[in-house]
Amino acid sequence: MASNTDMFDLRRMVYISLFTALIAVGGYLSFPLPLSPVPVVLADFFVMLSGLFLGGVGGITSVGLLLFLSLLGLPVLAGGGAGFAIYLGPTGGFLIGYLVCAFIVGQISNKGKSGILKDLVALICGNIFLYTLGVPWLKLVLKVSWKEALAFGLLPFIVGAVIKIIVAVMVRQFLRLSSNQDN
Predict the structure, then answer these.
(1) pLDDT tens over the chain, length 183 residues
(2) Angle at the Cα of 119 (from 16 to 128), degrees rounded to 5?
(3) pTM of the predicted protein model
(4) How many CB atoms neighbour CB 63 within 10 A?
(5) Distance between CA atoms of 71 and 135, rounded to whole angstroms?
(6) Of 15, 48, 118, 156, which one's alpha carbon is 20 to 30 angstroms from that of 54?
(7) How far is it, in rounded angstroms, from Cα 54 to Cα 105?
(8) What are φ and ψ of residue 33, in 5° steps?
């Protein structure tokens, strides 16, 4: 017979796997931009949610599993991408940034008393780290100026990032309220 600890671990593994699958699906929802080698994806939205709902360790585990699966050759990244070469390309910094983003979001949002403002700060900080890793890598790989790197890897994504942050906060708040009503 399984103990409560075993059930908790199983539930946590299921949630981590679920978020890994959601991040992969979000990568398939990929829309190329005409002036950027970095596509618009929903994967980063699910990376943020993984940090919010699983905490820092659970979020980084979920993202790490996705990246590991891609290294094994499974087509789980944007547009069905996979393999080590992707990490050496223009989006490699953003993929590593996913790990940091999920961890930062989880660490900030799950410490102490929860709330909308804390979640908002966590998501903003997570995105700052995501782009702090992604844009310099893009600059290095493409051998472009900082102005061009920002034009390719940051500016076209700001509005989308703001929308994703707002929706993530709303989803978290909705589920928080729903779980409080169930109790």
Answers:
(1) 455 555 569 999 999 999 999 999 999 988 888 878 888 899 999 999 999 999 999 999 999 999 999 999 999 999 888 999 999 999 999 999 999 999 999 999 988 788 899 999 999 999 999 999 999 999 999 999 999 999 999 999 999 999 999 999 999 999 877 766 655
(2) 85
(3) 0.90
(4) 29
(5) 22
(6) 156
(7) 10
(8) -100, 140
DSSP string, the chain: ---HHHHHHHHHHHHHHHHHHHHHHHHHSEEEETTEEEEEESHHHHHHHHHHHHHHHHHHHHHHHHHHHHHTT---BGGGB-SHHHHHSTTHHHHHHHHHHHHHHHHHHTSSS--HHHHHHHHHHHHHHHHHHHHHHHHHHHT--HHHHHHHHTGGGHHHHHHHHHHHHHHHHHHHHHHHHH-
Backbone angles phi, psi at 115, to 5 degrees: 180, 165
Q: What span, in angstroms and rounded, lies between the C-alpha atoms of 101 and 122?
A: 9
Q: Alpha-carbon distance 34 to 134, whole Å? A: 18
Inter-CA distances, 146 with 92, 121, 143, 152, 177, Å = 17, 26, 9, 10, 43
